[in-house]
Backbone:
């Protein structure tokens, strides 16, 4: 018997997609995961004393926390948190600022309203608002508006891809406002999500899944990308990152792909807490080389 694949995917059964994408409930102990990030982030906030809760978008949730560099004219990195667009807030992940902040960056942790209250296009606009705010307010946060970079993890990696392919001419800032993008454990083709356990929250249509898939919108004006994931992540995550990386190269853009040895979907992000970790150093080298 021959089985047809689900449209836009390499899968015949939604259950296969669920296994590939259900990172929290099937792979981790959720309380242990959240307890770790909350404790680390509370400590980072207490020690690094960010400027908190700056509203940048149209919704109340669209706020940022800013970890200023010690010296002016520092490069700016915007980090977008994950949680499958439906859970967590920036407050879970402020500890991620520590590594790059201690290496001389102003780090912005951005936030957004969650699905199903909003759709993924609304989340993308919230991330764009954070970029625009950083450009317009760079000097006041010891930043250099000519050196703005974006990174993010999981759903935030998807957002990083969307920022990389944004046509900024519609937003009143230079087309090259973002000088480099580093998606971590990101997803770049949302079509499989329509058949996954997440669809009840995401409510993706065929049109919106394509619209919010960076893989299909790589234009001539895309900054250099550093595509990162853990080498122990699922096949789907490897496929997503590899296809995005190759599409960037095929379009003539700079792209580097790194599968972090022994890294899974959680540990690959944890390394950014340490300013001396290999991952933090790799990101630092990439951003400073853009």
Residues:
């Amino acid at each position: 018997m021959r089985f047809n694949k689900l449209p836009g995917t390499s899968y015949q059964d939604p259950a296969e997609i669920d296994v590939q994408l259900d990172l929290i409930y099937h792979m981790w102990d959720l309380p242990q995961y959240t307890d770790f990030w909350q404790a680390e982030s509370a400590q980072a906030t207490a020690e690094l004393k960010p400027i908190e809760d700056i509203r940048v978008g149209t919704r109340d949730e669209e706020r940022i926390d800013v970890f200023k560099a010690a010296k002016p004219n520092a490069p700016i990195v915007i980090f977008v948190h994950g949680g499958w667009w439906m859970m967590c807030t920036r407050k879970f992940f402020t500890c991620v600022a520590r590594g790059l902040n201690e290496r001389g960056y102003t780090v912005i942790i951005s936030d957004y309203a969650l699905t199903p209250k909003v759709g993924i296009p609304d989340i993308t606009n919230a991330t764009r608002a954070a970029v625009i705010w950083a450009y317009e307010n760079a000097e006041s946060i010891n930043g250099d508006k000519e050196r703005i970079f974006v990174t993010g993890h999981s759903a935030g990696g998807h957002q990083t891809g969307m920022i990389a392919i944004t046509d900024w001419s519609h937003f009143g800032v230079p087309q090259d406002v973002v000088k480099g993008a580093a998606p971590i454990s990101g997803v770049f083709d949302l079509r499989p999500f329509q058949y996954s356990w997440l669809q009840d929250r995401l409510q993706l249509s065929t049109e919106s899944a394509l619209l919010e898939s960076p893989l299909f919108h790589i234009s001539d004006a895309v900054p250099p990308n550093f595509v990162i994931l853990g080498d122990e992540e699922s096949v789907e995550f490897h496929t997503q990152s590899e296809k995005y990386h190759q599409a960037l190269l095929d379009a003539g853009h700079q792209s580097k792909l790194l599968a972090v040895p022994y890294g899974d979907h959680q540990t690959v992000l944890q390394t950014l807490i340490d300013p001396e970790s290999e991952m933090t150093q790799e990101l630092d080298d990439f951003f400073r080389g853009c």
Notes: Residues 24-28 have pLDDT under 50 and may be disordered.
